[in-house]
Amino acid sequence: MAADRGLRGIVAGKSSLSLVDGLEGRLIYRGYDILDLAVHSTFEETVYLMWHERLPKRRELEDFKKALVQERQLSEEQLRLLSTFPKDALPMEVLRTMVSHMALFDPDRGDNSPEANLRKGTRLVATFPAFAGAFHRIRNGEEFLPSSPEMDHAASFLHMLHGKEPTPEAARSLDICLLLHVDHEFNASTFSARVTAATLSDLYSAIVSAIGTLKGPLHGGANENAMRMLRKIGELSKAEDYVVQALGRKERIPGFGHPVYKTMDPRATILKDMSKRVCEGIGEPKWYEMSALIQEIMMREKGLYPNVDFYSATTLYALGIPLDLFSTFFACGRVPGWIGHVMEQYSDNRLIRPLSEYIGSKDLKYVPIDER
Ligand SMILES: CC(C)(COP(=O)(O)OP(=O)(O)OC[C@H]1O[C@@H](n2cnc3c(N)ncnc32)[C@H](O)[C@@H]1OP(=O)(O)O)[C@@H](O)C(=O)NCCC(=O)NCCS
Q1: CA torsion angle for 176, 66, 206, 51 (degrees, to 10)?
Q2: What is the pTM of this model?
Q3: Is the CB of 261 under 6 A from ligand 1?
Q4: CATH classification of 15-216+324-347, choosing from 1.25.40.10, 1.10.580.10, 1.20.840.10, 3.30.479.20?
């Protein structure tokens, strides 16, 4: 008997990284509720928690932050390579390529021990925003900006993109956004990372698999598509007609629905408040207002709740993240989760190899080529 299409409801393995409670609308990282972490924690501290299974002491957090700062500087070779890419390359394609390239030069290449993977993981988390920021500036003909060692991860991301120091409010908003994206149990990209790791392939290969999976519009591409839709609608007064007509054509509204949550995604609750604040902050409350109206229409018409991508779209937009970098931003947040899952997979590995239900022919006789 075949499993449900898309493996819905199938428990495909054990994990202690995160719990998605789709009925209660809760997300838990290593025992801590995401609502609590979003108020009290930071991206860096949450990454430490995910990798070490406990919150860091002050000194441990400082050391980890220092290691991230050290690793986020790009080499001359990486910058040269970035400058050779087509200017219209998708940032997710660029990220996928840069991670493959980085694997070839990693000093821990060939070492799959947990210690080496933590070092590689730190390099990956540190360089993702640097790749995004550098490519964005290069494609716009702007000078590359080396990251500033005084800045935390989120602030440095905004600085590398925009060339100016962000306000503390903008940096903290982006920091919370990153933290909210860190993990989500066996989502599609994490699962592909684990499938790759389970062959005992290396961490970089697993991360490349995950990037390729996140790139799709049904996964990490939804936040960009949600913002494109809002821009197409343009005005609050046009939202109702647009959504009702799109649903009439059986189109999917990006940022709604979820395979696990049957209620409000807790990340969407946090991001909704943030979206209101940051959209008002740039003097464009209409993006939030349109989103809130579309949320009501989607509930009325389809009974669907917004997922993480819906309100992250307007939040990222108001923070000045270019639309085609939204999925890359998602990857910057999710990469520590991928790394945590890959290390968990290695720690108790078995090749992931399901069956398929064969629905093709069985008894065809071979026909020579001239007789076909
Ligand atoms: C996330 C997603 C892939 C989950 O899909 P799923 O759990 O497999 O749900 P299904 O594809 O089985 O859809 C169930 C029903 O809800 C509808 N539906 C689901 N998401 C919808 C959406 N965003 N807009 C309109 N209708 C939607 C489907 O059309 C289907 O309706 P039907 O039964 O009348 O055909 C899906 O909700 C989606 O495509 N959302 C938009 C993309 C997105 O936001 N992705 C980010 C996920 S974090």
Answers
A1: -70
A2: 0.94
A3: no
A4: 1.10.580.10
